[in-house]
Amino acid sequence: MLRTIGNILWFLLGGLVMGLAWWLIGLVAFITIIGIPWGRACFVIGQFTFLPFGREAVDRKLITGRDDLGTGALGLLGNIIWFILAGFWLAIGHITMALALCLTIIGIPFALQHLKLALLTLAPVGKVIVQR
Prior knowledge:
With about 130 residues, this protein is mainly alpha-helical. It contains five helices and two strands, in the order ααβαααβ. The chain has helices at about 1-30, 35-50, 60-65, 75-100, 110-120, and strands spanning about 55-60, 125-130. The chain has a two-stranded antiparallel sheet. Helix 1 runs antiparallel to helix 2 (about 35-50) and helix 1 (about 1-30) crosses helix 4.
């Protein structure tokens, strides 16, 4: 019950805006063809950004127990490219939303969630969203 209330409030207090920002970056990535892997990640994380309570982003290596293209050296390279082209800007958006929400006591838990998502924007390649 609390997750549902939290997700509804979150959606109204910044989740919609930032989720759409993730999807917009994903569309741009798909247009470039070479950015399709990043675009796919943008849509998954954008969906997570709409309703984050009760779910969590973890390293895919923790789930599978082995390295793959997204969790090894190529994943690191992908995260560096991602940060330079899009991650920095999404992180600024999440941090801005967090600062705005910190102005009220009720907004502080939502601000903390925005800060967690800002950290995720720095290196989303190799992450998977799981239920808590």
